[in-house]
Amino acid sequence: SSGINAEYGDNMLGFTVLSLLIQLTYSVSVSSIIVETGTGKHDGTGDTLTMTIYGSKRDAERISLGKGFTAGSRRTISRSTPDIGTLECVVFQTSGDDLWVPKEVKLNTKDGASFSFPNSRGFGLSNSEKMSSGWAAAIGFCTPITESTAGKPRKCTIKTRTSKNKHAETDNCLLVPRIYGEHGVVLGESMDRMNHDDFKPGALDTFTYQNMQNVGKVKCLSFNVLRGDDAWLFSYATVQCDGESVKTFQNSQNQWLSYDVSEGVRFIKMC
Question: What is the pTM of this model?
Answer without folding.
Answer: 0.65
